[in-house]
């Protein structure tokens, strides 16, 4: 047990080179987001693209900076599916209604 | 039942004799806090996205200078602070106290810089007439100011608390009062603050870029 814990901790220390690589990728994705903001894209599509890129960035942060990639699968299963499920529930309730409202006649 | 068999049973996760997640209680507690806090921010961001979507005439006043340039700089500062934080955790685990303290101080400096840049941006926008109840660009969309100050204000509060938290951990770790585990747990909080900004920046700032 102690040996397993020790091994996990050694893995999670990570290589500084890996952290610098992740940091550069995060900056590149941010630059892509800023570039996209100045493109003439319809707002629904823009929100989808920006949220998608933000999800990739948050996955990189959680996996490498927060060491979730080096933790046991049990911790990942305890944390991530619960958040994803709750967020999906909020979006399922709100977004169809929001998109419906855009098609209502204006008074 | 022999002593060896008894020890085998006590070593299983269900008997409490083993740690199924292989993390200490502090780290588990911080992860549970992050789950709950991420749902708070999710609710706010989804509510914002909801009103943003169904309001076609939502104001888009942000120019390259100052708003987008400043918020991009803030994103760079916060991402860099995450890098210094993860290097501080690595140094703390390898037992290099001085290096860990230096990186913790660099992380705190980035946090302070973020709050200061954010404060100057808030002051500029308030001078332009933006308040939590109204905005100078489109009076028919009063939620614009509320969403902006609510989301960025709550995030700035988290950053400020994070700087104080890191300061306490840095002091304790330097004195030998606390361990590398404490540095790692404080790092989880700091990375979470960074992660939240990764959603606030595109949704609040980039979606408000002036299309002209």
Describe what this molecule looks like in 3D:
The complex is a heterodimer of chains A (107) and B (212). Chain A is 80% helix and 0% strand. The N terminus of chain A is likely disordered. Chain B is mainly α and 212 residues long. Helix content of chain B is 74%, strand content 0%. Chain B is elongated, with a radius of gyration of 22 Å. Chains A and B meet through helix 1, helix 2, helix 3 and helix 4 of A and helix 2, helix 3 and helix 6 of B.
Per-chain topology:
The complex is a heterodimer of chains A (107) and B (212).
Chain A: H1 2-13, H2 16-37, H3 43-65, H4 73-101
Helix pairs in contact in A: 2-3
Chain B: H1 3-10, H2 25-53, H3 64-93, H4 97-127, H5 143-175, H6 180-205
Helix pairs in contact in B: 2-6, 3-4, 3-6, 4-5, 5-6
The major pleated sheet of chain A works out as:
none
Radius of gyration of chain A: 19 Å
Low-confidence stretches of chain B: none
Note the run of SSEs of chain B as H and E: HHHHHH
Strand content of chain B: under 5%
Number of strands of chain A: 0
% residues in beta strands of chain A: under 5%
Count up the helices of chain A.
4
List the keywords.
heterodimer, A: mainly alpha, 80% helix, disordered N terminus, B: 212 residues, mainly alpha
Short account of what is shown:
With 107 residues, chain A is an all-alpha fold. Helices cover 80% and strands 0% of the residues of chain A.
């Amino acid at each position: 047990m102690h040996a397993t814990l020790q091994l996990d901790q050694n893995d999670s220390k990570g290589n500084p080179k890996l952290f610098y690589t992740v940091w550069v990728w995060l900056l590149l994705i941010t630059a892509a987001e800023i570039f996209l903001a100045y493109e003439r894209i319809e707002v629904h599509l823009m929100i989808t693209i920006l949220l998608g890129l933000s999800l990739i960035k948050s996955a990189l942060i959680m996996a490498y900076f927060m060491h979730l990639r080096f933790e046991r699968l049990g911790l990942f299963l305890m944390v991530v599916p619960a958040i994803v499920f709750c967020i999906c529930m909020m979006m399922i309730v709100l977004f169809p209604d929001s998109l419906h409202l855009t098609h209502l006649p204006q008074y | 039942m022999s002593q060896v068999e008894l020890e085998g049973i006590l070593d299983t996760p269900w008997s409490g004799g083993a740690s199924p997640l292989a993390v200490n209680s502090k780290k588990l507690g911080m992860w549970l806090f992050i789950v709950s806090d991420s749902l708070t921010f999710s609710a706010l961001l989804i509510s914002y996205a909801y009103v943003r979507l169904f309001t076609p005439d939502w104001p888009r006043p942000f120019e390259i200078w100052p708003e987008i340039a400043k918020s991009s700089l803030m994103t760079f500062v916060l991402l860099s602070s995450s890098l210094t934080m993860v290097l501080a955790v690595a140094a703390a685990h390898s037992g290099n106290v001085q290096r860990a303290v230096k990186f913790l101080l660099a992380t705190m400096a980035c946090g302070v810089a973020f709050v200061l840049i954010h404060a100057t941006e808030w002051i500029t926008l308030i001078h332009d007439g933006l308040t939590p109840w109204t905005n100078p660009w489109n009076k028919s969309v009063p939620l614009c100011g509320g969403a902006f100050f609510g989301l960025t204000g709550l995030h700035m509060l988290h950053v400020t608390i994070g700087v104080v938290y890191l300061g306490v951990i840095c002091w304790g770790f330097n004195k030998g009062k606390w361990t590398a585990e404490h540095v790692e747990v404080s790092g989880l909080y700091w990375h979470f603050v960074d992660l939240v900004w990764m959603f606030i920046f595109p949704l609040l700032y980039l979606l408000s870029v002036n299309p002209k």
